């Protein structure tokens, strides 16, 4: 097979697959992929630091991002993200800017002695309790505030990197969305010494804390907006991991404590995507557009097929059903999901599209957890339906009149045209077989 | 690669302009953007209740297409949101 440009795809290793991509063993896409993303974007490099990848306004597969677990440094694979806007301004090294408001706290300019989560920049700020109101004042709320305008019923996720200084360090911090826009219970506490999520209000629907090198943690909290209009988010200090919103506590002069802070982000959606730094304006990262246009070597079958996918979803889409991976037929005005997996909320929708029907199986996965999915079809669907499996749990479609599937023109990662809708996360591996695997075989693939 | 800042009185007007310029279509109830274009539908912006959108073009546009677009001219010096 020497000289065959598709040798990397044909590593069958005895399992019969005609497409076999293990992105955890790659560091770049080669020229057989078509890739664009016309803005810069960040990712986690092999050292666990936040790194920046240049834009690819025209096809440039070398600008795809390969992401790593910041805690274990294990490779996560190819990072494919939908379009996302960081709704904060002055997000990384300008918390002293007037965009940010402080209440009973001080923000110092970048501390040159502290390495930021990029590993090379000295752009982290220090947020310190302020003793200014005197002992007679019963309520001190020590916090930093940024404003944005949510839309009712849309979920938003705030995130930031925080770190304890070597001395005079705050242990507990609290994320809170403004009551105006999110209600009074949208708050969550974090223990940034133990690296754990504390407790908070019922308005928070998801929250995470992730360890990064040099003692940094990225903390996230998600809440649905209860109203449209001016609102904001707060990063404050707490005295316990279960502190109430706007906890009152007093400090004495000279005993003020602090944290380091970097990389604030608020974005629409459930879960935090990769960090996108901003300055004077909100910033929009354009989606990763990735596909393989030459699919003849995969021997696509219009009557039988099996696909395998493994990866991690970091941010969910809940407003549509764009493709995550799969075979497509793409033309200027035609975009047909031929045999693919779609995503919506925490669900994968496994489909095959063709003459006479579009059978579908829906299975649920967990956000920020690695999962494996496998699905197969046989056009004799009255006896052997579309079967799908996630992590060992099987489902089958109802009977349909499907008789033949469409001919695809590409294998896609994400879906062109739907950049504003598809989710974010890493793809570890993908396989295709032009044959129908049984339910037991699918289960064996995903366990 | 060129960025445009767009503004109309309402979202429906913005969508109509994008359709007329051949930049987007509606499919299954969603605004689907044609290849080589990226659209960021924003809405109100910094106290201006009119509907705003950002458009990035990776390629050429015809004069007819440009004529269909509600381009803010001159472009704002400090836009609320950008592609960067």
Q: Keywords, please?
A:
heterodimer; A: mainly beta; Jelly Rolls; 2 domains; 8-stranded antiparallel beta sheet; 7-stranded antiparallel beta sheet; 33 strands; B: 84 residues; alpha+beta; two-stranded antiparallel sheet; 44% strand
Structure description:
The complex is a heterodimer of chains A (447) and B (84). Chain A is mainly β and 447 residues long. Chain A has two domains: 19-35 and 290-446, Jelly Rolls, CATH 2.60.120.200; 86-284, Jelly Rolls, CATH 2.60.120.260. Chain A is 3% helix and 43% strand. In chain A, strands 1, 5, 6, 22, 28, 29, 30 and 33 form an eight-stranded antiparallel β-sheet that branches. Chain A has a seven-stranded antiparallel β-sheet with strand order 2-21-32-23-24-25-27, with no helix packed on it. Residues 1-7 of chain A have low confidence and may be disordered. Chain B has 84 residues and is an alpha+beta fold. In chain B, 19% of the residues lie in helices and 44% in strands. Chain B contains two helices and six strands, in the order βαββββαβ. Chain B has helices at 11-20, 63-68; strands spanning 2-8, 24-27, 30-33, 37-45, 48-57, 81-83. Chain B is globular, with a radius of gyration of 12 Å.
Record the SSE blueprint:
The complex is a heterodimer of chains A (447) and B (84).
Chain A: E1 19-22, E2 33-36, E3 41-44, E4 50-53, E5 65-68, E6 75-80, E7 84-86, E8 101-103, E9 105-108, E10 125-129, E11 143-148, E12 155-163, E13 172-177, H1 179-182, E14 187-191, E15 196-200, E16 206-211, E17 217-224, E18 231-238, E19 258-268, E20 282-285, E21 289-292, E22 304-315, E23 323-331, E24 334-344, E25 347-352, E26 354-355, E27 360-364, E28 371-378, E29 387-390, E30 393-396, E31 404-405, E32 410-413, E33 424-433, H2 439-446
Antiparallel strand pairs in A: 1-33, 2-21, 3-4, 5-6, 6-33, 7-20, 8-11, 9-10, 10-19, 11-18, 12-17, 12-19, 13-14, 13-18, 14-15, 16-17, 21-32, 22-28, 22-33, 23-24, 23-32, 24-25, 25-27, 26-31, 28-29, 29-30
Chain B: E1 2-8, H1 11-20, E2 24-27, E3 30-33, E4 37-45, E5 48-57, H2 63-68, E6 81-83
